[in-house]
Structure formats: structure tokens, C-alpha cells
Amino acid sequence: MLPLDTKAKLTNWGHAPLLKVADLAEMAVGRFPFERMALDLRSIGQKSAATAELVGLPWAGFIANQDAQLPSGRPGVVLDDRAGIVRPGDVIELQPLRSRVLVRYRRGDASNVLFATEQCNSYCMMCSQPPHDVDDAWRIEQMCELVKLIDADTPSLAISGGEPTLLGAGLNRVIGHCADRLPATPLHVLTNGRRFSAHGYAATFEAAHPALSWGVPLYGDHFCLHDYVVQSSGAFAETIKGLYALHQAGQRIEIRVVLVKPTVERLQELVRYLYRNLPFVEHVALMGIEPTGFAKAHYDDIWIDPADMADALEAAVEFLAARSMAVSLFNLPLCALSRSLWPFARQSISNWKRDYLPPCEGCLVRERCAGFFSWTTDAWTSRAIRTITHHEEGVSCEKH
Amino acid sequence: MKFRGREAFTGSRPYRLLPLRFRRLPWDPSRAFVSSMSGDWLLMEHATLERVIDRVLAADDPVLTDMEARHLIARDIDRSTLAPLLSQYKARKAYLSQGPALHIIVVSLRCHHTCSYCQVSRKPTGASSFDMSEEVANTVVERLFEWPSHTLTVELQGGEPLLHFERVHGLLSRIIERNQREHREIRFVIASTLHDLTDEQVQVLKTYNVQLSTSLDGPEALHNANRPRPERDSHARTLAGIERARATLGPGSVSALTTITRRSLEDPLAIIHEYRRRDFHSISLRPLSPYGFARKTVARTGYSIDEFLAFYRKALEIILSVNHDGYELEEGYASLLLSQLHTPFSHGYVDLRSPTGAGLGAVVYDYDGQVYPSDEARMLAAMGDTSFALGRVEESPRTWLSSPAMRRILDAGVAEALPGCSDCAYVPLCGADPIDHYARQGDPVGHRPTSDFCRKQMGMFDLLLERWELGSDADRRVLEQWALKAPRSTPSDDVSEAG
Ligand code: SF4
Ligand code: SF4
């Protein structure tokens, strides 16, 4: 796991903007104005290359290992970063008060996220990002700024929260910025979908971005179960209506099912419900719990060992796959899954929060195993974890 | 905010029944098949259903959960939503969305068979006065493009259309030429015995990507007895035609229908093995219909629907075992009905719709320029009863649709509103066939308890459901596979049973 922030010494900064970390290659491309870039002196190698001419350009500031390397009088960031947390191409936010640098965008990473808001209209039992009722509308502007500094060839981008649709028209603005600056980058918005039940809102996203899709969770085939898991009366009806409104507006939809115990108990009924009522969804993701946030407080209510849901998972995946509904398994270690499910398992955990356990050392399939969230503890670890040591049937089957 | 237990989210209002229908299972009368307005369904104890209806069940009874998820009841209506039910209903009736997509053109009535049950009042091969003229054909092409459907299936049939190949070729090329401007998606099917199919003809069919539909009633003796020619070579000629077509158009280019005569009832095994031997992966076992000449000769070739169902039950067993043997073979009608049971989708078949497919899903253009809503209506006219003639090709589709004939069809064309059907648990999956009922019972509404159409439908649904529910995992897999592969209604997939 590679953290997303690090300690830093910040000098001569008037305000704290978002900065593109630039090396000489970045400068040559010329996509971003000097005023938005911080020259990463660490990338230049011998000091001699940082000529006065180069330093004299109107950079927003400079990044270096030591004070002494910084051009005097100019804004500077001194990092203690042996791990390589901040690298050229990244976009960083400076937090002078905390003396920290946050990586808001990491070049080349497939799991960059625009964090939309801390607010939410649900209160899910297993929420990994517990919501806060704060006014953080400033994030809209920051996301728009961030989008301007993101590489055009970024493989994918997500918008998450909190609940992004609480931004209302602000979400349209952010997506519009992505359409202008990153039209080729698949954009996936994680939303509970409830807001789309409001008349006309879904339609405002028609043709909003060429590669836009929505990831919407559904935890049950009836309102009692879903409303209980998301701890909100009426949520199921709103989400279902929202899904139809999104479909009506020509949007692409993924259904995300976090495998909490009460949902696993009706998993077969849930996938049947999806097929019968929402056959237009593009993808169904069945996801292991992220053991942080509220999840920790509800261990007894939500935890079920993946080893104990093997039959349910197999039946659900087989049902969907036979009906040409694309299905994937997220956040589940391979050794806890039956072989027939391996082709459906994805390495879904972002690398900055992915870790492996001792049995993973020397495990034959580690390279394509989802592994574990860094904060996984014993209680949240399947009893089925074991090193895959030899070429068992199915191991070499990479295709699917 | 505090977390709340499950009981906090169960809603506070009593449940309501949504429109539902049920039928006791013939193989287990203590249980019932319960269906929703849109054809979602559940098998449950009949006694439990009664308790649900009497509202003596506890609110947290698990069966209520299953019933709610299938839109049979609604618990607290403020917290649930009927949107999925409406969406399912719309998906089920998707065949209504674009207007008729199946257009049958009768190129010639000439035929070389003298089948006792012929459905189309064929004429001897030399009688060219029963050919469609070029003028009529050109007008048909004009009308074709006046319909709104983006996807069109054009089916050329006869008599034997290949006896008038010049017209076939003319129609194909004129339609494609006209489509340069129209940009519709067009699929061609020709229904033929394939007896006189030549290599030159096959080359033409290849150019237009034509699918062939033929008749193969079983092994040689049976087929030849059903389809007499003076030379007694009907079977051999059809097989030769199939080979010739496959060699150039590909292995999947020919589909075959099996007409079941009295003689066929005795040997389902021989029929099915003939299909396997001839490399077919689909078979369509269809009973004789009451049209054409069949009604007159019912004593000789006829049999009751119950006899047909008994035959079908045996045939289904054989087909399943062929599949378990590793050879994929589906039965077409079973696939259609199973798709209605096991998928939420609409289908492309015009003879099992509500509102009826006659005139709404299909239009028939006869050789002489008369227009009918279905092949059955055309056959009635050939026997002197023009009750269901829509008009002539010189008139517009608007005129046809507002004809008294169409009105009469529509009055009896919605199964959900027909006596008998309106209470039947299978009605969301079934269809209305007013012309069939008129032909058999003298009245488009018809009388369900004595209707052969209904008897066949109900018998087939019962049988397929029973076989699925009592079947092994392997049986179920085969049956579900048929259901999932069945064509959905994008209207381009519309098919008729002509052949
Ligand atoms: S041992 Fe580790 S790497 Fe191997 S399958 Fe299990 S969790 Fe994955
Ligand atoms: S025709 Fe028979 S089986 Fe079909 S809906 Fe009507 S009553 Fe039911």
C-alpha cells in the first residue's frame, strides 16, 4: 500500500492551490500552464540541469528533497518521501496548516477518485466513508480545478463521496468539465441513485460525457431488506425509481452489491430480481465488505465469511452469467472462492489500500488476487485463506 | 443518528394484493402457480395462498417477501414501488412498439404436392394464373415501406414460391433497391419444399442473405405419405434441397417444421431421430391447424388435442434425452413458451400475442393483391369466407387497419379481456387468436373450455412447468437454455409458422 499523503515543509506559499507535479517531459508536452505546475527538482537528476533559465520560468513553485535545493524566495515544497508518494504527473494539494501534501491524482493509477462530498442521504451499516453533515460545496470548484490538471490519457476516473448527487447541478458541472478535458476517460459515478427518482434530474445527464456510467448499490429484492441495510426508510423505492430514470435517460448502469450477511441470505432472490426487473444493467459487482468506518461497529450483523457464502456466490454468478449479465467479484481473495469463480474475480482494491497477508508470500496467484484492504483484521479475514502453491486445475485459466 | 434493527424498516401499513391469478398444479393440486400482471410467478402452497388472501398471515412471513419481490402483493405501498411491475409489463409487450414487422408475400399458389391437409388450397404446377403479377408485387413493395417498423422480416411463401422464382428474385432485388433510401433492417425468409431448388437459385438467395424454411415431417415413409407426389420422392427431394442450400448458404441456413399428422403420433422417436440424422438442432412439432383443406379431411388425418399432447409429452422426453446425449436439439414451441416462463422479455412470434399479432404484428399480401392480417385469414378467404380480408394492396395500411375486419379482430384480440383467459394464470404469457377461434368455433371471442387453442396452450404450459419443476438439474439446464436462447422481440426476429 502506498499512502496518499505525506509530511512536507511548505515555504512561501500565498495560497494553497492544486499543483501538477512536473518534470522536464511534462514541460515539453506543454499541456498545462507554468502557473499550475510545480517543478519537481528531484526528477532532474544532477543539479546542473536545473539551469537558471529553467528555474526562471514562471513555475508555481518547486519540489525538492532539501531546503538548500529550492530557488530562494520562490514557493517551495520539501518532502521527506523515500516511498515515492509524490511523483511527476501527480496532482497535489498543499495543506500548509497541517504541513502535509495530499495526492489528489496519481498518474497511471486506475483508481483515481474525485471526492464529491462528505454528505449522504443514506446511512449504510457497512459504510466505509461515514458521512458528515458539513457544507462542503467548495469541493465542486476544487474538483473542476483538479480535472484541469489530470492527464488526458488517464485510464479511468471515479466520482465518489458521500453521495455525489447531493451536489445537484454541481455534479453536472464536474461531469461537464470531465467531458471537456477528459472525453476519452471512462467516468464512473458511485451513487445510491435515490436522487434520480426526482422528476427530471436523471435526464440532465443525457449525453453528459461520452464514457459515463453509474455504480448503484442494491442490497435486497424488497424494501424491508434494502432499507434496513442502508438505514433509510423509502430508500429502496427511490433507488429503484432512480434506476429506471437513469435507464430512460440512456445512462449505463452497474449494480453494486456489498456482501453483507442479510443480503447474502437472499442473494439468489436478489439476482433473480435484477434479471427480471433490471435486465438492462451493464454489470453486476458482488463485493466483499471494506472493514472500516461503520462496518466495524456492525461486525456481528454484517460479517459472513466468504467461505460460508461459497454456494450462494456460485449460484448467483452462474445465474447471471447464463443470462448474459456481466458479473464480477470484487474484494474477495481467490483462495476463499471456489475455482469456478476465479474467472469472475477482479483485482478491485486500489493499490494504495491493498495489502497481502503472510500466506500470500509465495502464493501462486498473488499477482491477480484482490488481496485485502490494508485495515483488514483477523476478525474480517476468511478462515479459508491459504497459499495456492501448485498448479491446481483452473490456475492457469487466465481467460474470461 | 442511531442504527435501527430490521423491525424498524418493515413498513407500517397492511399489505395489499396486486392483480394476481393462480392455477392449481395438475401434478400436485396442493400447490398453485401464481402469476402477476406481468407474468412474474411463484409456485406455492395453495393453502398458504388462501391465507395470504384472507390476510391471516403474520406480516413477517417469508412467503410475503417472495410474493412482494414477484409483484404479487405490495407491503406498505408508501415504501415500496410499482415501477418494476410496470417496467416488466412494458418489456413483456415490447412487440407492440413498432407495428407489424412480419410481412408475408404469397408469390404463387402453385404447388406440386397434393397433401391431404394442405393449408393453402394449392393449385397445380402449370396454373400460372395463380402467380403474383409484377404490378401487384411492385405495389406490395411500396406498401411495405409505409409501415413504421425499423426492422422488417419479409417472408415469401406459396404454394411453392420457387415455382415462380422470377417473381421471388424480382421482389428481393426491388426491396433491397428501395431500401437504399429507407435504411431499414430487412431479413428475408422463403418457405419452400426446396424440391426444385437449383444452384443458380441458391446463388441468388446467397446474394440476398435469405433464410429458408422447409417442411420435414419425419423419415421417408412418413414424409412421403404426408406429402404425396406422383413420383413418391418428396422426402428425397427435400433432403437434396436442404443439402444444396446448406452447401452454399451455411449449416444454419435452413430451418424445418414438422407437421404432425395422425400417422406421426405413433412414432415420435423416428421423427426426432430423422432430425438428428439430418443435422438439425431445432425441431418444431406443430399440430394440424383447422384451415385449408384440413377441416374437410379431419376424419382421415385428424386427432384430438389431447392425443397431440400425449404425443408431445413423449416427444419432449426423447428430445431431452437426445440433449443429455450431448446433441443439442431444441423444440421451437417449447422454447417460445419457456421463454415466457423464464425470462422477462417479449418474443418475436406473431401467433401468441395479446393484443393479437394478426394485423398488429403481421400482414399477408396474397398473390392476387388481397391483404390479410394472417395466413389463417387468407385460408379462410380461399374457402370462401372473406370475413377477415383487410383490403387490397392499392389501398393504404391506414385503410386496412380501420377496416371492419380489423375492428372485429381487435374486439376479440386482447386475451386479458376474454372470458376464460381473463382469469387464467397463464394469460400474461399466452395470447389471443381471434381468427383461429372464428375458424374453429365460429366466433372470434370463442369459448375457452371447449377451445382446442386453449387446450393446447394450457396443456403445454402445464407440461413444461411440470417437467421443469420435477426435472433433474440437467433437465432444467436444457429447458432454461432453450428459454434463454429464444429470440426476443426486437421486431426483426418476428417469425411465423408458415411452411
Ligand atoms: S493466499 Fe493471499 S494471494 Fe493467495 S489467494 Fe489467498 S489471499 Fe490471494
Ligand atoms: S388461451 Fe387458455 S391458456 Fe391461454 S390464457 Fe386463455 S385460458 Fe389461459
TrEMBL record, chain A:
Record keywords, A-Z: Iron, Iron-sulfur, Metal-binding, S-adenosyl-L-methionine
SUPFAM superfamilies listed in its UniProt record: Radical SAM enzymes
Alphabetized GO MF terms: catalytic activity; iron-sulfur cluster binding; metal ion binding
Transmembrane regions: none
Names of the cofactor(s): [4Fe-4S] cluster
InterPro entries the record matches: Aldolase_TIM, Radical_SAM_PqqE_MftC-like, rSAM, rSAM_paired_HxsC, rSAM_sf
Protein name per the record: His-Xaa-Ser system radical SAM maturase HxsC
Origin species: Dokdonella immobilis
Organism taxonomic ancestry: Bacteria, Pseudomonadati, Pseudomonadota, Gammaproteobacteria, Lysobacterales
Automatic annotation (TrEMBL), chain B:
UniProt keyword list: Iron, Iron-sulfur, Metal-binding, S-adenosyl-L-methionine
Domain Radical SAM core per the UniProt entry, residue ranges: 97-328
PROSITE patterns referenced in this protein's UniProt entry, alphabetically: RADICAL_SAM (PS51918)
One GO MF term attached to the UniProt entry: oxidoreductase activity
Stored Gene3D superfamilies: Aldolase class I
Span of the signal peptide: none
Cofactor: [4Fe-4S] cluster
Keyword presence, Iron: yes
PANTHER family: ANAEROBIC SULFATASE-MATURATING ENZYME HOMOLOG ASLB-RELATED, RADICAL SAM DOMAIN PROTEIN
NCBIfam families: rSAM_paired_1
Identification of the protein by name: His-Xaa-Ser system radical SAM maturase HxsB
Organism this protein belongs to: Dokdonella immobilis
